[in-house]
Amino acid sequence: MEIEIGRGKTARRGYGFDDVTIVPSRRTRDPRDVDITWEFSFSSKTFSFDLPVLASAMDGVVDPAFAIAMGKLGGLAVMNLEGIQTRYEDADVRLDEIASFSAEEATGKMQEIYKEPVKPELITERVKEIKAGGVLAAASLTPQNVERYAQYALDGGLDVLIVQGTVISAEHKSSYDEPLDLNAFVRDVSVPVILGGCCSYQGALHLMRTGAVGVLVGVGPGHACTSRRVLGIGVPQATAIADAAAARMRHLDETGQYSHVIADGGMRTGGDLAKAIVCGADGVMIGSPLASAEEAPGRGYHWGMATFHPELPRGTRVRAGRKGSLEDILLGPAHENDGTLNLVGGLKTSMATCGYENLKTFQKAEVMVAPSVQSEGKALQRDQRVGMGT
Predict the structure, then answer these.
(1) In Å, how far are 155, 357, 359 from 182, measured between CA atoms?
(2) I need a labelling partner for 85 at 20 to 30 A (CA). Which of 94, 139, 167, 360 fits?
(3) Which tens digit of pLDDT belongs to each residue from 301-334?
(4) Residues of the domain holding 202
């Protein structure tokens, strides 16, 4: 339903995760019987994962060691091929510096650190390090640099390529540079490609039509992202995912090809992961929850890929803290009651409580618009800043 903003402008209402809740059905299920495996196919090969979780391509989250740990737990970590790991041979020195900056000086000093050029040979080396750990190697490049650097990643044995920016489109226009032809690139590259971000029906549909195996849905919801304030753009995640899911069904009807919807950002708890799936996501990409893992390279800090932009930073360094091991965060056991540990356990228990056996059926669960569920009956928790009051 459209709302009149003024006589000359109407708008749709958008909903975030806190605006909606999942309605249990008539059936419940044993959580041990719930299947959360995720897979996609490319060129007669099937890529299978025990967990439908990707780690965001952010320097405070993923380095080769973290990617190996994530892969061995059943997920997929995406490394930023234009970040610290490919600008510096000894990345740990720079990561120590970033963690030492005060809040006031962090952005400016990070801009200086990221002035160091990307070194193509380090791209190949880092991908090889991940492959040497016996897991799939996934990595991210921006549209403006993917043709320049992709082959170096492929030479290292890259398995999955993510072409990622704040917003990308299959119809980029420029009177200054030759735009990347996403349709041709996705068609010709030898590995599966995931594209993002997007946050609308048309945007998702056009990216799916390139032949991408998946699209990242989310513009501005990340905990370290400031795009919504700096640029004034974005769509609340529940609505953005549902719109992309509708685009997925149209694309499937048109082509017979299933392009996966991956919710990217705005998720902090197991309940958020569950809501993302119910709204239509096939998998989720998370950053800040994983930045708080002991294995994360950010020393308890988290920042986005646009934090250090030389002209218009669109992110900030935030403190994620250290909550526990990566296994604690993903698989538990939890020693907190706020849903930020054992994320996968929260997802599985939500599915079981609502009676669904796998991710695809869980997408059919009923959703209700109910912002009051965040505060109803929670006065003591809110006053004492515990549980849902934190």
Answers:
(1) 21, 36, 29
(2) 167
(3) 999 877 778 888 888 899 999 999 999 999 999 9
(4) 13-389
